[in-house]
# Entry
Amino acid sequence: MKRFPRFEWSMKSSGFTLALAILAMLSAVHAAETEAQSKPLLSKGGRIVIAGDSITEAMCYSRFIELYFAACLPELELCPMHVGRSGATLGAMQVWNPLIIVPAKPTLVTMCFGMNDGGYTQFNPLVAKGYSDGLKIAIGPLKDAGATVLVGSPGVVDSHYFKGLKGPHKAGEDAAIYNQTLAGLRDAARDTAAACRTPFADIHTPMLVAMENAKAALGKDYAICPDGIHPGPNGHLVMAYAFLKAMGLDGNIGAIVVDKDGKATASEGHRIISQVNGTMEMESRRYPFCFDFNDKSPSSVRSILPFVPFNQELNRFTLTVKNLKGERAKVSWGAASRTFSRKELEAGVNLADAFAGETPFQENFKNADAAVLAKETYETQIKTMLGETSKLLNSPSDKAKMETLSGILLEAVDRKNAEIRAILAPVKHSLAIALE
# Structure
């Protein structure tokens, strides 16, 4: 629920008028948020642009989002691209909107700025206002072009590794002070998104919670941002989680129901090819999101899973077993096996979580990851090329040539997206359930 400043007034007519004004403001904000949240953010064939600063240019959280689209939601055939630049603030959108983003004809644009906009100093209301004004300037042309804009807040700096605060402050307080600044910009982004009637993704809060809990469990030197500012793969997964949740995704990748007294059934995106005794042969078009096997290193995406509900809320590939005749059963999925109680199987086991790092989808997913990285590298080159070429424009005919060049490059991005979807072809896999 949105928090508003606390007001105090006496029981006079002026106070009553102020109370009515506040109620009107609350009603208007609620109406704006309801309108923004009611619009579906993803539609079949939709074009998505992921924009931001060097954290976006790192091609990590954007890669996770693209992989989720291609592997977990293949039926939507989405066409994403990413645009990021080291050191960028919101001012970069004034260049990118006419040059790259609007020509791409996006249906959805995600923005993640604020790390640099905060100035690496204590919170300043004037800086927050400038950030809010910059958001409005960036949002306007995109909405005019028919795109929905998903405003992302800035993330966090690492509580152990960040040492770059400017201005006077006590030693050791760099991260705490700047995270307060980033929280202030988060609030500014939230309020601006509501005012512009566009959706909002809180990146800051889940990153802060995940960082605090992970460091409490694994030690303060467990890095969310190894250099203090830029997240590692673990931090980028939290960012991807926050954006995907803000898109309204339900996280239901698949549901397999096995009745030991009858037949097995599978949800959309999966089919049962055969069922002999306790073994099923299946084919799945929808993939669960896959992780590496390492569950401790900060450089491992999987290491952050205990501290962010990614699998629980976005990556549910559920096996439910009814009428099991024993108290425990071994479930073998591909080459890996796990043992579960009857109670767990009756309630439903999330295979994507229980078999993290060992699913039958790993190889194709890894290949798709490499292809997405190559595509995003190409998109970075496009951004640089178009930026340098735009400086040479001198006439209307030059502008027309520029539009032609932009169109050719964007068509290449679409082809690369189709190639990634082809890598993620339906996978045949076996699932066996045996009493123990």
In short: DSSP finds 13 helices and 14 strands in the chain. The first strand starts at residue 47 and ends at 52. The chain has a mean pLDDT of 89. Residues 120 and 165 are 5 Å apart (CA to CA).
